[in-house]
Amino acid sequence: MLVPQRHSAIVDLVREHGGVSVEELAARLEVSPSTIRRDLNHLDRQGRLQRVRGGGAVEADETPFARVAAHRAEEKDRVGARAAAVVRERDVVLLDIGTTCAAVARHLRGREVTVVTASLAVVDELRADTAVELIVLGGLLRPSYLSLVGALTQQAIAQLSADIAFIGTSGVRPDGTVLDSTGAEVPVKHAIAASSQRTCLVATSDKFPGSGLLPVCALSDAHMIITTADPAADPLPALEGTATEVLFA
Question: What sequence ranges are listed for the domain HTH deoR-type (predicted)?
Fold first, then answer.
């Protein structure tokens, strides 16, 4: 079996079973566990699947972007409008991947700002706008989520100094841990936060609380949170009196 065929077989097995051990994949495909681990690392970098912490199982990351965008679309639009309102003229804005950040981009149309992004969805929102200066970061394409990831993306972000960054999340634990479900995206989020004077988390109400595979940061690490969540939703009340500002859309 050729390597591309083996990669496709791995993805098919993951989609079918939801989680498959390294040993089971090795037995089914008649290769060594070390070969499977290399395959999983490669497929994870491509965004075709995601390794579970510990490396014993994998899970598919193939939900189409359009389907995710349609979920709570009205809430995302409200968050996007509220987020765009805190952007100042001529700001340099770093926009994360994800459907809520794409909504932020939509509300930046016509503004004299510079937008830097690795999200092709953001590019689609702004590419025809003559007022916005749009900078697109390079990297490895994740077709399922219209994003660019990897070392090239992180290196490019590290050279920037943005006025404000907007990042998304797959969910926030009650203890305030901000999560993401895709390993390839977490280092990009870290780079975005490190290269911006202000970091703003944008999230709809279903993210409080929410789930995810990997920790990104603590909620209190963000300078601002913009959400449609109930003010009493954990862990938002714990932020009272801290330096983190919470805005409700």
Answer: 3-58
| Pairing mode of beta strands 133-136, 114-117 | parallel
Q: Which two tokens stand for residue 42?
A: 């490669």
Q: Which fold has domain 3-59?
A: Arc Repressor Mutant, subunit A (1.10.10)
- The DSSP line for 119-183 is BHHHHHHHTT-SSSEEEE---EEEGGGTEEESHHHHHHHHT--EEEEEE--SEE-TT-EEEES-T
Local confidence band at 104 (pLDDT 50, 70, 90 cut-offs): very high
Q: What is the DSSP letter of 47?
A: T
Element (H, E) at 17: helix 3-17
Architecture in CATH of 67-248: 3-Layer(aba) Sandwich (3.40)
Retrieve residue 128's tokens: 């025809």
User: Are 119 and 146 within 8 A, CB to CB?
Assistant: yes
Tens digit of each residue's pLDDT (9 = 90 or more) over 156-188: 999 999 999 999 998 999 999 999 877 788 999
pLDDT in tens, 201-225: 999 999 998 887 789 999 999 999 9
Q: Please name the amino acid found at residue 225.
A: I
Rounded Cα distance between 67 and 189, Å, is 22
Distance CA 97, CA 69 (A): 12
Task: Find out whether 138 and 148 touch, Cβ atoms under 8 Å.
Answer: yes
